[in-house]
Structures are given as C-alpha cells and as structure tokens.
From TrEMBL, chain C:
Cell location: Cell membrane
Record membrane topology: Multi-pass membrane protein
Keyword entries, A-Z: Cell membrane, Membrane, Transmembrane, Transmembrane helix
Lineage of producing organism: Bacteria, Bacillati, Actinomycetota, Actinomycetes, Kitasatosporales
Official protein name in the record: Sodium:proton antiporter
Gene3D superfamilies registered for this protein in UniProt: 1.10.287.3510
Domain of life: Bacteria
One Pfam family this sequence matches: Oxidored_q2
Keyword Heme: no
PANTHER family: ANTIPORTER SUBUNIT MNHC2-RELATED (PTHR34583:SF2)
Residues annotated as transmembrane: 71-95
C-alpha cells in the first residue's frame, strides 16, 4: 500500500488532464462523471491507506542510504493521510453539490470547473502527504494558483476579480517568504527533507553545544509566514474574508473546509518535524507565537463575524475565528491539543461546508446573500432552514457534534481555555443563528439598510445556477444534510477519537517521525487509552450553544449589528492590496518578536 | 487605512524583516563554500544514472515529483487563465484588421522562425546532456510560432495555432508525465522510478526515463505557453465589450 | 564581503514588498511581486555556489570536475515556473479588474470592506 501513496495525488491530476484534453467535446454529464470518479478514487485510496499500517513512500525509489536520500518522500502518517482523506471526500461532496446546477461558462469550457477542482484536490493532498520542504512549497503554490483561478471564476462580476487578486498577492508573498526560509535551512543543513533537516539541525546543535541561533529562528519565522497566511492568522488574515465572500459557493466549501486548515497543519508539521528538537527553536517561543496569533485571530474573527450582513463574509470571518481556535489548540504542542484540534477540524469542515451550501441555495433562489434583504424569504424552505440552524449550533459546539468534541478535548488542556473557546463559539454560532432566525423564520426587523461604518452588503448577486431556481435543488440540500451528518458522526464514534489520539501522539513525536522516515522505524503508535466526552466538556458545549441561542434571540430584534467601538478595526479591513501586504510584513516582524522575546 | 498609516505599518515591518534576515545571514556559511552534501550526492547519482546534465537528473529523476508538481502548476495556470480570460456574456469577438509590416521585418522574422523552432526542439531533446530541457525548450518553441505574429500578422499566427489541438496537447503532456510515473509502479518499483535501461553516458538515449519525461514536459510547456498567449492576445486584439469600446485593432504600424 | 550575495537577496525581497504596498497601478504591483520572488532565486543560487566550480553539466567535463550545487539550480527552475504562472494569472485578473472596475488603481477598488 505504501507504494500507492503518490496515487492519491496523481489520480486527480490524471482526471484533470483528461478533462482538459477532451473537455471541449465531452458532454457535461460525462465530464462531471470523470471528475467525480477521479476524486472518489483518490478518496478511496486515502481511506484504504488509513485502514492499513502507516508507511512511507520514496518517490522514484530513492530510499535513504545511511539516513540520506536524493529523493522526495511521501509520508502516510495518520494525520496527514486523514487530512488527504478529508480533502478528497469534501471534493466529492463539492462536485456532487455543483452537479448539473452550477452554471458553467459556455463556449467549450465544459470541463474547466471540475478540472480545476481536481487540481485543487491534488494540491492539497500533495501538501498533506509530502515529507519534503521544497515539495511542500510546490504544492502550496499549486493550491494557491488553483485557488486564485477558482475565486475569480465568475469574472462577469466585479467583486470576485478583486477578491482573487488580493488572495493572489498576499498568498504569493507568503509563499516566497516560506521559500526564503527553506533556502536558509538548505544553506545550513544541506537538506530539504523535513526529517533530514530536523536531524541535521539537532546534530549541529549537539556538536556546537548550543540551541537555536539567529539563522534557525529566522528560518522558522519565514517558513511559518506562508503557512500562517494560508491559515489566515491575524494579521495575515485580511485576504480570507475578501476571498471567501466572493468565490463560488462550492469553492468556499473547500477554502473554508480544508484549505485554510492546511495552513495550521503545515505550521504544526514543520514545527514538530523540523524545529521541535534540540537544534530547533525553543518550545516556549513557538508556543507563544502560535498562542498569541491564535487567540488574536479567534477574537478578531468572532468580533468581525458578528457585525457582517453579507452572509458568506460572515461565514468567512467565522472561519478566521475557528482557525484561531485551531492554532490555539496546536500551540499547546501536546498530543491532546493536536488530537482535539484534529477532531475539531473534521467537525468544522462538515458544519462550515454545510453552512456555505445552504447559503448557496439562498443565493440561487433569491439572488442575494444579504441578511437584511433576505429577511423572511426562507420561510417556504423549512428544511434548508433547519440545516442552517443545525450548522449554527454545530459551530457553537453543541454536543455531540464533532466540533463540540474537539472543542471539549482542547479546552481541558488549560484552565483559561474554556473562556476563550466558549466565547468565540457562542459569538460565531450566535451570528449564524441570528441570520437563520431572520431569514428562515422572518424574526425581528429586516434591519436598517444604512448601517454606519464601512461594510460590504450582499445584495444583487448573480445566482450561480445561471438563473434563479424556484425550489432548493435536491443535490444541494442532500449534500448539506450529509455534511452535517458527517460532522455529527465525528463526535459520536468513539473509535475515531481513539485513532486520532494515537495519530496525534505519533504526529508530535519529533524523533519518532525522523526514525520512521529515514530508518524504517514504526510510523504509528498502537492505540492506547483516550479521552472522550466528559461531563465538563459536554456541559461547556451546551453552555456555548445556549449562549449562542441567547445572543441570537437578543439581537434579532435590534436594528444594528455594529459594535460601536470596533469601527477602527472594521476600517482596517479595507480591501486594499497595499494595506494587506503592509500587514503581512508587519506580521513577519510580529512573529519574529514573539519567537525571540 | 490612510496612506500614512500604511507606510508606518509597512516600514515597521520592513525594518523588522531586514533585521531578522540580516541576523540570519551572519549564520550562513561563507559564500562559495565547499560543503554541499545534497549537491554532492545529486552529482554522484546523476553520473550513476548516466545523465550528463546533473540539473536534469535532479529535475526528472531524483526529484521528479517536484517537477510533476511544477508542471501541474503551469497546467493549472493555463486552465485558470482560459477560464478568467474567457469571452463573457455581452462581449463579442471582432477579428483584428490586418496590419502592414515593413518588408525587412517580415524577411527577418520568416528567416529566424525555423531556426528558433529548431533550437527549441534541440534544447528539449538534449535536456539530459546540455543545459536546457523541456521547460526551456518548450518556451522557445512556443515563442518561435509567435514570430509569425510579429513578422506577418495575427491571422497568420492563428493559422498555425489551432487552439483545440494545443489544448489537447496540453492535457496529453500532463497525462503523459503522470502515466510515465505510473510505469514505475507497474514495473514493480516506486512511482516515477527510473526503470528503463540507462543507455550510454553522453548520448541522446541516455538517462532512462529522463528524456521521456523531458519530452512530456516539452509538449506540455509548448502548448501551455501557446494557449496562455492566445488568451492574452485574444483579450488585447479580439474581444470587445458590449459598448463597443474598440481595442486598438492590434498592432497598428 | 562573503555575505553580500545573501544580503542582496534580502534587499530585493524588501524593495519588492515596498513596491507592492505603495503601488498605484496593479500591473506595476504584479511586477513588484515578480521582483519579490526573484529574491528567492538569488538566495538559492548564492547558497549553491562553490568557488572555482563550473556548471553541473558533464557532457564536456571530466566527471571529477568541481561543480556548483545542481539541486538549487533545479529548485530555481521550479521557482521560475511558479513565478511565471503566478504572474500570468494575476495579470489575467488585472485585465478583468480593469474591465469590471474601470481602473487598475488599488486605491479606487472599494467593493470589499468592513
């Protein structure tokens, strides 16, 4: 099975190549079937690999000799493979969601959209599986390039092209910073593999008798920059709301569901494999960096999320808030923190993708994603409303959703964490419930049209189905329901938590990873005892869900969502490329300060 | 954010980044040093694999998976550009007027076109022996076709550039790389393993799969650049908005 | 000054970033992004240089000749391709921005805020 790991990345590539070569002539159902088949085959391979024992695959058979290799390794560790499986399954869901209804451009570009989605899948799976720093950069860029194109897909409209441009500038800049960092590491160690670089750093430190010097810290900061841009951590986050608000809905499901989480995964992976040893950066510095940025993202994301009327932008800011929580969980740098975060990511992917799916249905029926304009318009589709509300409660961490379980497991790690997690979950979940109550129940007032302060309204958007649909299309509703069911399953199947906990233990083992990759040691851990739902965890989940309901109930009647003192913060989200680039370099400075302190 | 505030944030960030980077440089090995462990291994492996151009050995053999990703980035970019620069609703295509070209330019262009084409093909074919390969040669081949646009006019370029065929070649080049990689698996080794006979050092057929992967990339890059330029040229010369904001009709002499 | 090549790479990165952030024209900003990226080529090639060595191509060299690091050259090639593609895509987006917004000045793009 190990030998087949590259196929997880390569099968979607082949599918995309076939679609491009034949797409002009293939009728749409055939193109969609080919894409679905390729995505599903890749998902099947990833799931099959997860069922077997973990292993590594040296591409080109360049296996290491004496701990050194000239090749690239793909690592089938449970967390990376799990993320690849999640990506592939979500891609299948997205292709099903856009099946038949999603409006494709005419004039012989029939297979272009599914082909781009397959390339996106390949980029993310490659990034999740690779054990080589430069290879990770290549797949990072592949994700980026496809992401810009997919975001700007609806070129007939003004906003998507602006959002895609911002995405392109900030992400590319982050990628180049990462590559500078990789260059520094190569200069020091003469290696590119994560395990090899980590080992060389440790050996050099052992020989010199000291830990990190300026070069290692700088490399850490620069490599982290690109990953934090991808993870949309404050102050690298500005691109995310602009992008997710304007991308086609199926693309938003992928961007928010897995791509942003790839940034957090990358940060954790690079830290544990390269920098966690004696030759890396001190754990205190890494923890402080991720913790400060994580908490700041969670708070800024929640505050901004609450004030949006553009529903997709609201969901985008909730993604900023939740990735903030993920970074906080990762920052603990413990197996339990990673295990909880992994479950949280799984649950969040289902819930957030389902919410975007429901919002897409609103867009396709009413040509708007504006909370005020949509007031009461969803009253005739109670089932979609039910799904939307369930998604909101899942975001709030209601047990037994996977989000609630992940949140509970991370919260138990430190006494002050519950306050942050409950607050952020309640505000983001509450914002979604508020929208749900207004749109699907017609509760409260429509809301004033002329709210003070800078804001993006969501009216007069083109439906993505070509023309408005009368009733919610069956595939779209089915996909949303299945995604929520999956999110629920994450929190109700104990075996999954057991597997994730064992995976997290292997993931955080710096020396174990190097041994598994370079010396053929065991790559996994046997499953041991694990934590599951506790009364406290479930209680805190119920508390944040109750708070979310209370917040929503209190705010439906109010005419304004604006939090008065936050106007300066809202003004910083200006949509200006120059501003965002300035914040990105300022972020490099901030991260260096936090890492060094 | 005001321009002033942006400059403050920017300059603070730049200063901090400069300090961080400069501090890092003091820890780098001196420029031109002799310690290159990966490089030395790569050179040894290239010679052992009968690939005279060590860079090609790294690109198409030792780190061939990177190159697959790289080729895919280009492939994705072309697909993305095709989508982004499509003719939208309300836009129409107007064939540009033929433009006059000075006779000397025409003669020169038509003279160097076949030479450029030949050089491009040579660079692709000799990627395992001399500097170059599929990426570099592919760009040269694609450029040579565009000499027709410079030396004759857009119509002439369009005649040698059937887009459907080049899109087919674009997909085929990508698929060929993917399938050549799978051949390694089928042969019982790893994905992208170099399982072919390595041939005689410093001949065209040396390097095992390297020349084949090189050719696949050459096909992909050639067609990718042609398709890419076609869409940019289409935007510049052909596509007009509904309000008839006429583009300048191409290259006016 | 054996650090000069490395410092040059850093300088190119910084001026590129400064250019993007202060640009009044998106085409210019895309150019600045390409400048930023070229810092990575300079760093990679500087890292791989070896005094007195030549290009790692053995078709007309003895096989024991000292050569510079071929790995960074391969990486730089990949990097160049990535840079060219990103530039092309962003320029395509700028073309559409000019059509939809009627401007390529980032100061005048105001559809997304708050």
């Amino acid at each position: 099975m190990d030998r087949l790991l590259p196929l997880i990345v390569v099968v979607p590539l082949l599918g995309a190549a076939v679609l491009v070569a034949a797409g002009r002539h293939a009728p749409r159902p055939v193109a969609e079937a080919v894409a679905g088949l390729a995505a599903a085959a890749s998902a099947g391979l990833a799931v099959a690999a997860l069922a077997g024992p973990p292993g590594v695959s040296w591409v080109g058979a360049w296996r290491p000799q004496g701990g050194h290799s000239v090749g690239i390794v793909l690592v089938g560790d449970r967390i990376g493979l799990g993320l690849a499986a999640l990506t592939s399954l979500l891609v299948v869901a997205v292709l099903a969601y856009s099946w038949r209804y999603f409006d494709e451009p005419p004039h012989g570009h029939g297979g272009a959209f599914p082909a781009l989605v397959l390339l996106f899948q390949a980029g993310m799976c490659g990034f999740a599986l690779t054990g080589d720093l430069f290879d990770a950069f290549v797949f990072f860029e592949l994700m980026g390039v496809v992401g810009y194109a997919l975001t700007g897909y609806r070129v007939e409209e003004a906003r998507p092209v602006q959002g895609a441009l911002v995405f392109g500038f900030v992400n590319s800049l982050g990628g180049y910073a990462t590559l500078l960092g990789i260059g520094l590491l190569y200069a020091r160690t003469g290696e590119l593999g994560m395990a090899q670089v980590g080992r060389e750093l440790d050996e050099a430190a052992g020989a010199a008798g000291h830990g990190a010097d300026a070069l290692v810290v700088a490399a850490f900061v620069l490599v982290l920059t690109g990953l934090l841009v991808k993870a949309a951590a404050v102050p690298f986050h500005f691109w995310l709301p602009d992008t997710h608000a304007v991308a086609p809905t199926p693309v938003c499901m992928l961007l928010s569901g897995v791509m942003v989480e790839m940034g957090g995964y990358g940060a954790a992976r690079v830290w544990t494999t390269v920098f966690a040893g004696p030759g890396g950066v001190p754990a205190a510095g890494a923890r402080r960096t991720l913790l400060v940025l994580g908490v700041a993202s969670a708070l800024v994301g929640a505050l901004m999320c609450w004030q949006q009327r553009h529903v997709k932008r609201l969901l985008a800011f909730s993604t900023v808030a939740h990735t903030g929580l993920f970074l906080t969980g990762i920052a603990l740098l413990t197996p339990h923190g990673v295990a909880g975060t992994a479950l949280y990511v799984l649950g969040h992917a289902g819930a957030k993708a389902a919410l975007f799916a429901c919002t897409g249905i609103l867009l396709d029926r009413h040509g708007s994603v504006d909370e005020c304009e949509l007031h009461g318009k969803g009253r005739d589709t109670p089932f979609t409303g039910l799904l939307f509300a369930a998604g909101g409660l899942a975001l709030a961490g209601l047990p037994p959703f996977g989000t609630g379980l992940g949140k509970a497991l991370v919260e138990e790690q430190s006494p002050w964490l519950p306050a942050l997690f409950v607050l952020v979950s309640a505000v983001t979940g509450g914002a979604v419930l508020r929208v749900g109550a207004r749109v699907f129940l017609g509760a409260g007032q429509a809301g004033r049209e002329d709210d003070e302060g800078p804001e993006t309204a969501g009216g007069e958007e083109e439906p993505e189905t070509g023309r408005r649909v009368r009733r919610p299309p069956v595939p779209m509703v089915t996909v949303a329901a299945l995604l929520l069911a999956a999110s629920l399953a994450v929190g109700t199947v104990p075996a999954l938590t057991g597997a994730v906990t064992a995976a997290a233990e292997a993931f955080t083992d710096h020396a174990g990873y190097a041994a598994a990759v370079l010396d053929g040691g065991p790559a996994g851990r046997p499953e041991g005892p694990y934590d599951w739902w506790t009364w406290t965890g479930a209680g805190l989940g119920l508390l944040s869900a109750a708070l979310a309901v209370a917040l929503a109930a209190r705010s439906v009647g109010l005419s304004s969502r604006a939090v008065p003192w936050s106007a300066p913060l809202r003004r910083l989200h200006s949509g200006h490329v120059g501003d965002y680039v300035a914040w990105t370099v300022a972020g490099i400075g901030l991260v260096s300060l936090l890492a060094l302190w | 954010m005001t321009r002033r505030l942006r400059l403050w944030v920017l300059n603070a960030g730049l200063l901090a980044t400069a300090a961080l980077y400069a501090a890092a440089c003091t820890g780098l090995p001196g420029f031109g040093g002799s310690r290159h462990p990966y490089g030395d291994r790569a050179v040894r492996t290239a010679l052992q694999q009968h690939t005279a151009n060590a860079v090609s050995s790294v690109n198409f053999d030792q780190r061939a998976f990177d190159t697959l990703g790289e080729e895919t980035v280009l492939f994705a970019c072309v697909l993305g550009t095709v989508v982004l620069l499509r003719q939208t609703r309300g836009e129409k295509r107007v064939p540009p007027e033929p433009a006059g070209v000075p006779a000397a330019l025409r003669r020169y262009g038509l003279l160097v076109l076949p030479v450029t084409l030949l050089i491009g093909l040579y660079v692709i074919a000799h990627g395992q022996l001399s500097p170059g390969g599929g990426f570099q040669g592919g760009v040269v081949v694609a450029t040579s076709l565009h000499l027709l646009y410079i030396a004759v006019d857009y119509k002439a370029l369009e005649r040698v550039r059937p887009l459907g065929l080049f899109e087919l070649a674009d997909g085929t080049g990508e698929a060929a790389y993917v399938l050549l990689g799978a051949a390694g698996l089928i042969a019982g080794s790893a994905y992208l393993a170099n399982t072919l006979p390595l041939g005689t050092f410093n001949t065209l057929s040396s390097g095992g799969t390297v020349p084949l992967l090189n050719a696949a990339v050459g096909v992909e890059v050639t067609s990718a650049v042609v398709v890419l330029l076609a869409h940019f040229l289409g935007q510049a010369l052909e596509i007009e908005g509904e309000d008839g904001d006429a583009k300048d009709g191409g290259r006016t002499a | 000054m054996s650090l000069l090549p490395y410092l040059t790479a850093g300088w190119i990165f910084l001026v590129g970033v400064h250019g993007i952030a202060t640009s009044r024209n998106l085409v210019h900003a895309v150019g600045c992004l390409a400048v930023t990226q070229s810092s990575t080529y300079v760093l990679l090639l500087a890292v791989g240089y070896r005094k007195g060595a030549t290009a790692p191509v053995f078709s007309d060299l003895p096989t024991d000749a000292p050569v510079v690091d071929p790995v960074v050259q391969a990486l730089a090639l990949t990097d160049v391709v990535v840079g060219a593609t990103v530039t092309a895509l962003l320029l395509a987006l700028v073309v559409q921005t000019a059509k939809r917004h009627g401007t390529v000045d980032p100061d005048e793009l105001s559809e997304l805020k708050g």
